[in-house]
Amino acid sequence: MPAAFKIALPDSALAPALREKIDQKTKPLGALGRLEALAMQAGLVQQDLMPEIRAPHMLVFAGDHGAARAGVSAYPQEVTAQMVANYLAGGAAINVFCRLNGLALSVVDAGVAHPIPRPHGNPGEGTAPVFISARIAAGTDNYLEGPAMSVEARDLALARGAEIVRRLAGEGTNVLGFGEMGIGNTASAALLAHALTGAPLAECVGRGAGLSDAGLERKRLLLSRAFARAGLVAGETDARMALAEFGGFEIAMMTGAMLAGAEAGMLLLIDGFIVSVAALIAARLAPALAAYCVFCHRSAEPGHRAVLAALGAEPLLDLELRLGEGTGAALAYPLLVAAVSFLRDMASFSTAGISGKSEGGV
Questions:
Q1: What amino acid positions are annotated as catalytic residues?
Q2: Average pLDDT over residues 59-85
Q3: Burial of 72 (C-beta count, 10 Å sphere; 0-12/13-18/19+)
Q4: What percent of the chain lies above the pLDDT cut of 70?
Q5: Residue 66: its pLDDT value, please?
Q6: Is residue 3 a part of any domain in this protein?
Q7: What residues have CB less than 8 Å from 115, skipping those under 6 apart?
Q8: What residues are paired with 111 via a beta bridge?
Q9: Which domain holds residue 155?
Q10: Is-above-0.90 flag for pTM?
Q11: CATH of the domain at 285
Q12: Is 62 inside a domain boundary?
């Protein structure tokens, strides 16, 4: 088992000064709504009245799932490798949104089953994503027949995710976004959500990449079989055990990466259903982790609601997204920029020479 991560809640002693600074901006109290809470979070995580965003980075972890060959997805497993090639060529939605918002992008092979094709196209000078090979194996085992991964493979994935983030921390990154790609990974996430939250499995299972009604029913039946095979109790399952039973290498690697990011004092941009499942696992291993997380959007995948409730999280956006690959995190990132910017740059009543609210005013 890897060494425990040292993650503490941000020191709340700075909170009154941050609240005073926010309240003295040239606006009515609370007028910037949830941006004010986001600014407070940034200041507390960085322990600074003047927080800043440095070298923001998006990590997309890709991995395959053995159970995908049993029919839990509408797409063949080869699509994972093909989409990784698309990322590297700069042609996916996450590439577009990262370029738009000035986010560096790295694509991590956590365990892609098929060879990654040579990318088509030219993303342009200086915009090509970084490719990181951290693969554990050519996909996980089929959790319908046995655990998805061994304890040793799980711990190696956690460690490799942490290693990637510690390297980025050494390069100055203090804001980190998370995305994923893997045919069959909404099925894995549904099993993990059921195991960890106790929500009914049927309420955790969605259409993923576009299953028909018949495909959705088949997916539910297969996942019910998988959970019964494991012999676990929903809502009473150890997070590490659940991860080994049902997880993907990309989910395990994201978990380790989040733990290392919180340990380094980063703000973590949490994407949709699958990334949130990794965050839930990480929070079960280190409860203080949630304080470092910015929950970016509410996925259209039904299981996301149970996971968000378990984390006590209210996402910034609800755009009916279900693409994954970090797109919701990239779209929410400008809101973090705005929150930090108003805290740093917006005038106060005193500096602008504007009268504050009168006592007893209505």
A1: 325
A2: 91
A3: buried
A4: 95
A5: 94
A6: no
A7: 81
A8: 63
A9: 73-292+303-331
A10: yes
A11: 3.40.50.10210
A12: no
